[in-house]
Amino acid sequence: MAEARRRARVCILGATGSIGRQTLDVCSRHAERLEVVGLAAGSDARGLAEAAARLHVRDLALSDASSASRELLAELAPSAACEFGERAVAELCERVDASIVLVAIVGAAAIAPTLAALRTGARVALANKECLVAAGSLVCAAAAPGQIIPVDSEHSAIFQCLQAGRPSELSRIWLTCSGGPFRGLTREELAHVTAQDALRHPTWNMGPKITIDSADLMNKGLEVIEATWLFGLDASKVSVLVHPQSLVHSMVEFADGETIAQLGAPDMRGAIQYAMSYPERWKAPMEAPDWRKMGPITFDAPDFEVFRCLALAMEAAHVGGTMPAAMNAANEVANAAFREGRIRMTEIDEVIEVVMDTTSPASVESLEQILEVDSRARRAAAACIQELAR
Hints:
It contains 17 helices and eleven strands. By secondary structure, it is of the alpha/beta class.
C-alpha cells in the first residue's frame, strides 16, 4: 500500500485517440510509477470501456452521451462510474484528485477541461495545441509556473533544449516539420490531392484532424502560436524549418549564437513519458535510433505560397487577441469539410482567409468571449463552404 501511494495519479483526457492510446502504453510500462485513475473520451464508448477494463479504472467520462449504449457500458466493472456530457470531462479532473492530467482532446473542445485541470493544481501534460492557440492568455494566466509541460514533440524538444540555458538567453526557436506528404508540390497539384492522400503522413502516426493539419502545414502554424505562449516569445522569434527525416524535433538558438537541438525517434511516447517523468528520465518506451544508420539530415525553408495555411496562422499570431481563436475555429470546420470530400485542400486556406478577413480582433477577456468568437467563426466558415460548393 505504501508503494501504491507513491505512484503518480494520472487522468487521461482523450484516452481513445492516438496520443491517449500511446499514453496508456507508457503508463502500462511504468505501472510501478504511474496509476491511471481517470479516463475521458469523446464518442468512442467501446474504446473507453476497453481501456478502463484493461487498467482497472473506475472514474470515466464520455463527452458525447449519445455514443454510449447500455451494452457497451455493461462491459465496465460494476464499481465503475461513467459521467456524460461536455461538462463531465472537466468535472472528471476535479473528481479523481490526479497529480498529472494529460490533455489529448483534439481542437478547441480542450479549453474548458484544460482550465479545470489547472484549477486542481495537477501537472498538465498538454498534448492539445488549440487551447493555447484560441485561449493562450486565459490558460497561461490560470497556470502556476511550471505547471504545464508540453507533449507536442516539437515543444517537448524546445522545453528540453531550454535546460541548457536561461529563457532570457533564448534568441530564436527553430520549429521543425517533416513537410508532410505533399512537400515539393505546386499549388495546382495541391488542389487535386484527396483526403486519403493527405492521411498518409510519411513519418508520424496521428489522428485524422492533426494529420490533415500536418499535410497543409496548418499544424506548424498552430505550433508557432503554441510556442509563443509556452515560452513567452513574440512570433517573430519562432522560425519554421522543413526537416523531412523528423529526427531533429526542434532547436533553440541562444544569444551567444550557439544552437541546441533535441533528436530522437519519430515516436510520441518519448515526449509523453518526459512530460510525466520530468525532471527525471525513465527507461525509454521505444527503441533508440542507431545514428550510424540514419543517413543524411537535411533542412529547408517552408513554401508559404503553396502552403498558405501556415502563412495565415503566422498572420493570426502577429495580430493576436481573438484572431487566433477565429482562425482556429475556421480551420477545424474546413479541415472536417476536406476530410468529408466537400472542399479541396487548397480551399481550406480560402475558408480561413475569408473568416479572418471578416473578424475584428479584440483583446481576450474571458472564456465566454472566446467561445462566442469560436462559434461565430464556425458559422462563417460553414457559410463559406456552402458558397464554394455551389
